[in-house]
Amino acid sequence: MTEESSEQKNNVFRMESTVALDSSSLDEKEEYNPFENRNVTHPTSTLGSFFNLLKSSLGSGLLAMPAAFKHTGLIPGFLGTFLVAIIATHCVHILVQTSRDICKECRRGYLSYTDTCVEVFKQGPKKLRSYSEFVRHFVDYAMAGVCLGGTSVYVIFIASSLKNIFDYFFPDQSYPVEVYCAILLVPLILFTQVRHLKFLVPFSILANFCLLVTFAITCYYTFNNIPSLSHVNLAANVVEWPLFLSTAIFAMEGINVVMPVENEMANPGHFLGCPGVLNITMCLVGSLYAVVGLFGYMKYGNDVLGSVTLNLPENEVLALTAKILVAIAVFFTYFLQMYAPMDILWMRLKGKISQRFQNHGQILMRSLSVILTVILAVAVPDLEILIGLVGAIFFSTLGLLIPIIVQTVHKWNRGLGKYSYILFKNMILIVFYIIVLISGCYSSITAIISRFS
């Protein structure tokens, strides 16, 4: 055998070896299972994940649903609640599924909400890869906006409850709700300085207990002695429907905690599918919100307020107890909701502050964030309007827009389904998002202008 033919044979052997290795690597990549590569120190059971997801979707927003029904009437409100629940569930589903798919490609056990969005753009069409860092900032600030906007609603919630209570005990000294917002400023700043989640656990337990008792008392009053339907609308003017949509989205969206819940499951395969943790939770949430909204509106009609607890009798001990408990519950929930945005903002800022002033920087950042939420609450002191505004801008962006965009980018080069149905479906959802955003903002701003005119 000549030297040349021997070299050719070696080249062929190397080529075959390379092809075999590439094929082996490809098969290994395709067989990568993220669930088997999750290093979770304290995994959560399926039942525990169900309760965590349920807790994130059930909160003070439930008490706002009767006011949301006021803007649609009984029939559109009841059907619309399930429509919003279906859309919200679908957006969570596509976000989680996309995260799992990109985990396989990146060979990662799990990814956070932000990291999922970033990796999708990094692995997406070449023209979009340079936007990955912009996406990281956009998603982080959208997450912070959801938390800060939601906590502004909490400020009004607490202030309205306090005003309702003190107006009963001191009728000759009635102050506007803005005064109570200002009074809350100092205690909110002090408690928000708590920087470790474990110290907030007792407050979380107390808040959950107070909310549970409040819901029970509210249901007792709501489901008793329901008057005839003559004082309610079966269908309200379509112009008012946007406030319902933005309120319902605010009430039901818990997408900011979905990825942590799914990532820490002992059996993440139980999260999606039918039945699955997500579907079961959202079926229960949608049904509960629809029932509370329906009967709350039937009970109080167009006089229902931003939180149905404000409609409870003022001269009964049980009702007064509910108002006090809900104020305590939302007060402590405020700090839990502020924990995530404070972490996000501090990660962005601490590199720009010298080590000597790190502690002072944290104190200042946390204080200014609380002041910002109080200023927003004072600027829009109507609970119902503020919920609609925050839901239209922040919750719809995080819960609708971002999952839709992420799925579209991920599927663009990997197949958009038969007849590109994923693209058309997502275009319809984008239109829905734009309607919620524009009409919700317009309705809220119009209501604000008419309030002060």
UniProtKB/TrEMBL annotation:
Transmembrane segments: 74-96, 138-162, 174-192, 199-223, 243-259, 271-297, 317-342, 363-380, 386-406, 427-449
Location in the cell: Membrane
Stored Pfam families: Aa_trans
Record key words, sorted: Membrane, Transmembrane, Transmembrane helix
A GO term from the CC aspect: vacuolar membrane
Top-rank taxon: Eukaryota
Segments forming domain Amino acid transporter transmembrane: 42-445
UniProt topology in membrane: Multi-pass membrane protein
Tagged with keyword Transmembrane: yes
UniProt protein name: Proton-coupled amino acid transporter-like protein CG1139
Record organism: Vanessa tameamea
Organism lineage: Eukaryota, Metazoa, Ecdysozoa, Arthropoda, Hexapoda
